[in-house]
Amino acid sequence: MNSTRCLQSAGRGNSTPPWRVGAEQSYTGPSKQLPNDSLSQLGWRVLNESHACGYAEMLTEADADLAILLIAYGGPASLDEVEAFVLDIRGGRPTPPELIEEIRRRYAAIGGRSPLPDITRQQAAALETYLRERHSCAARVYVGMRHSAPRLTDVVAHIAADNIRRLIALPMSPYYSSLGTGRSLAQLQEAIKECAWRPAVTPIASWHDHPGLITALAETAQAGLRHFAAHECPKVIFSAHSVPARLLEQGDPYDRQVRQTAALVAQRMGLAEGEWVFAYQSAGRSPEAWLGPDIQQVVSEQAQAGERQLLVVPIGFTCDQVEILYDIDITCRRLAERLGVHLERSPALNALPSFIAALADLVMAAVRQGSQQEEASPRPRGEA
Predict the structure, then answer these.
(1) pTM of structure
(2) Which pLDDT belongs to residue 18?
(3) Nearest Cα to Cα of residue 327 among 89, 104, 106
(4) Which of 136, 234, 325, 362 is the most exposed place for a label (fewest CB within 10 A)?
(5) DSSP label at 225?
(6) pLDDT digits (tens, 9 = 90+) for 93-107
């Protein structure tokens, strides 16, 4: 076993509306180019990760007409909401009762609800505070969910009512996928059309190689290493949510981006080739092929190869959710125990200060890009 890993192991009742956040809120539960042709139909100039690094200028204006919208997948707030949540994801298609019961059982095992909406609010509150205190930016930060409350369509209507003229849309996945970020931005566009609102929108469509993200993920990985004794040398498994294999065939950049992020985090940690692997997890229940290798297969293969300590670093997720708290913490850990392997997981990003700083850098780059576009675009006659 390489000594690098060994050394690193040794080093170790709110009145605020649900779409708005307050800095006092906190979560206390468990812990390179994009396919522009697919986004051009939105009519927005997209901020890619290559534009997003190193902007730290101070804003002096009030920014009363500026808002940031964090877009997340959503999750049920109780076991009673699981069925509606699953049906919403499936577009209302008939769903076998046994599948709904299985998903309900998984949420019951992690506390009876998804922590994702609450954590996203915490991230938004931390981001709003960071922007105000570190960048003198008074932008308001909102939270919208695709498949649960607060619904993206409802949140957009409230943002419009707040007289926001400039909107930065930040999907909470760093990786672009037509089924993920692509659908989030399309849903945002539809919501804007529905309320007859015409803001200047700057979407941040991909930020998988942002230095701040890599730093934050490496920080969580180093924290995960502390679960092991000084003499233990865990092999690292970087994991991300699987997607249908057909997306890769269609030129979707998701697979390339998650693998690049894994390599960048491994490099930041000082891991050599052979000290880490990449795996997909949480594939959907559909007959089509999904990207692999699956994490359970990887855990089994590593055990057969003689590895007895494994650290899972879920780089595909920016906060605790069922894919982490159940698929890794329960399913993968049970498998590892049967195989005689000590498996641990690094903490999720959640509201880690270094992660919030990365989000702020993304936002400030988007603010600058939006300002440059406004200056370059002549206003229609009669517009103030």
Answers:
(1) 0.86
(2) 53
(3) 106
(4) 136
(5) H
(6) 889 999 999 999 999
